[in-house]
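Hey forum,

I'm writing up a methods section and want to include a predicted complex as supplementary material. The small molecule is zinc ion. I've pasted the protein sequence and the SMILES. Can someone with a working setup run it? I'll credit the forum in the acknowledgements.
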Amino acid sequence: MLCEKCKKRTATVFYNENINGKVRSFSLCGDCAAKMREKGELQDVTSMVGSFADPFSELQDHFFGSFFGLPSPSYIEEKACPTCGTTYREITKNGLLGCPDCYKTFEAELESTIGAAQGTTRHQGAVPARHRAKQKLEEKRKELKAKLDAAISKEEYEEAARLRDEIRKLSANEKSDEKGEN
Amino acid sequence: MTWYQTVGQHPDTVISSRVRLARNLSGYPFSSKLGAAEANEIIEKIGSVLEPAGFRKIHFSGISPVLATSYVERHYVSPDFANKTSPHALFLEEQEGLAVMACEEDHLRIQCILPGLSLEEAFKNARRTEQLLDENFDFAYSEKLGYLTHCPTNLGTGMRASVMLFLPALTMGGYMDALASRLSKIGLTVRGLFGEGSGSAGCMYQISNQVTLGFSEEELLHRLEDAIKQTIEKEEKMRKSISGDALDRLTDRILRSEGILKYAHMLSSSEFVKLFSDVRFGISLGIVNDITYEQLGELLVETMPATLTLSAEHSPKTAAARDMLRAKIVKEKLTHDNRGKE
Ligand SMILES: [Zn+2]
Ligand SMILES: [Zn+2]
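Reply by user p_vandermeer:
Happy to help. Structure tokens for the complex are below, copy them as they are.
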């Protein structure tokens, strides 16, 4: 969140006052809060809530300010995500994507931005359970396919038929799993 | 007992550790594009898993601004979350330090906050909650970019880990800028807890990882913990080096602060933070003996404006009334309340 006075620095002082039922509230950066206090516009800094919960808001300002600084050709600016309708212009404006599919839609446009901010574009961390299951299934399918190819080249047709059935069963199970989702 | 009422490892220098995981449900747009009906649907879905697991649901649309702010003061939600107008909810399990924000910037911010230096345990707790949700929902994920988040700065692990440090000696010595620039070179960010310009009024700083993509959760945590341990070492060395005339001056200042903290009739919030810091420093140096970290930790939260207002039978109407109430609460705890002592 940006400071509402200078609209430049990140707000770190959240001021609320209630004087005889008259409520005023400000979100300010440290510098602007100090200035207002000097001028007597703030009665008392009673509400210095640290911006503890949002340690990276500054980073975000900096991130998009510097990397999205250059204007893009208009055909890229107007490009929109087919799932949610968010345009590239919107993304460069507020630094937020519209939906998970935006990452596919704007993959090429975002690649260098993500790389510059994160240092890499390759995930190394945890994997969701469903994705892990899919990966396992994929490995199993590859293994069976290799066996099947080997069986065919050795003209072991009975074994090949058995393997083909097994592969079909794998695919059928996967489909019914997908239907069962939600 | 909650995180601010107890102490953990390295209480002289570490106040708390926190790990936060950002997740989004696939099949929905991100939060800023979410309709009210969809947001409520997500809140319902999350509740159906978390409430049976012992979490308490707080629907933020239905609570007063002052109550919402009190959750910010206890570090369970972000200021932006407290001020949101579209549907959003908090799921809280205070004993384990677990707080799940639903429909924050991301659909889910799963976080665990614990006293002292305990990043590993905080991660374990957050991860356990995340796994519970993972069993029931499909998170937005890509093999290449990891967990997909509203803002690309959270991609990959979606993990932000942070430690709140108490560094009075490094602050007094003017070393914080140097420390911050050093840490930024290894991908860590330093922020003052009370954002007063470049300095920090309470000598409290939060150090967190900047990068979230390209490393495993364990690697990110180890890097942070290494840097924290080195910082603690430097702070402790600085504290030990204070001697002679400087120690006498410091002792005088700390004891005066203790006196004011215990007996003042009015305390503004900024004055409280300054005195808090002096007295906390005094405990670690053995100068202050009859106040505990636990008492100070409770006061740090209880004297915050919203929490303070909520604690009063008749909420204070003026700044002066609030300052008197603050001083009264502090005096009562430090001169009558002997909990947490042998
Ligand atoms: Zn400002
Ligand atoms: Zn989209």
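Some notes you might quote in the supplement: Residues 174 and 180 of chain A are 10 Å apart (CA to CA). The longest strand of chain A covers residues 13-19.
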